[in-house]
Amino acid sequence: MHETHLVKPVVEGIQQHAKEEGATKVTNVTIKVGEMTGVKEDSFKETFNVLAKGTILEGAELNVVMFPGTIIQVLSFDVENDEK
Q1: Range 4-80 has CATH code 3.55.40.10
Q2: For the chain, which terminus, N or C, has the lower number of CB atoms within 10 Å?
Q3: Residue range 55-71, pLDDT digits in tens
């Protein structure tokens, strides 16, 4: 999985931001991936799922939007928080 170095900061960044907001689970993530990064959508999703295991992102639905560019950008993510 040569995508690990690109996907790991995304997973870590979402996890950190979600926890700062009091989230207990991330349920949905939408990411914009530039085709010029050389990353394929299925490989990105597989790597994301592997790196998300054991975190609050595990099981999140991942939507990848490919575009003709060179960046990877988190567009949005949805969270749950157990307020009791």
Answers
A1: no
A2: C
A3: 999 999 999 999 999 99
Q: Which amino acid is at 16?
A: Q
Rounded to the nearest 10 degrees, the angle between the axes of helix 41-52 and helix 4-20 is 50
Considering only CA atoms, which of 69, 31, 76 is closest in space to residue 51?
31
Find, among 82, 76, 69, the residue nearest to 17 by Cα.
76
Domain boundaries, the chain: 4-80
Distance separating alpha carbons of residues 6 and 41, to the nearest angstrom: 13
Going by C-beta distance under 8 Å and a sequence separation of 6 or more, which residues neighbour residue 63?
28, 29, 30, 31
Stated pTM of the model: 0.90
Q: Which residue has the tokens 């394929």?
A: 40
* Residues contacting 14, CB < 8 A, separation 6+: 26, 29, 57, 74, 77
